[in-house]
Amino acid sequence: MLSKKDFLMGVFSNLLFLTIGGYSGVYISQNYRIPQLHSPTELIQIAKEYYKKFEEIHSIKKKNDET
């Protein structure tokens, strides 16, 4: 079991990195031209399309290897 000191150091460390990451993200977003991310539904659709293409390519290779 973790001691109280180890637990608090872990919480503090994670909170510090979360804060630094959040601040960095906001700074970069405000000062640089970066493209907006797709919405979660669009990302899921893109992932499904990628998976289908990947599956088709590998099923074709598998069929060619069997013959």
UniProtKB/TrEMBL annotation:
Alphabetical list of InterPro entries matching this protein: STMP1 (IPR027854)
Pfam families in the cross-refs: DUF4535
Transmembrane segments: 7-28
Keywords: Membrane, Transmembrane, Transmembrane helix
Lineage: superkingdom: Eukaryota
Listed name of the protein: Uncharacterized protein
Lineage: Eukaryota, Metazoa, Ecdysozoa, Nematoda, Chromadorea
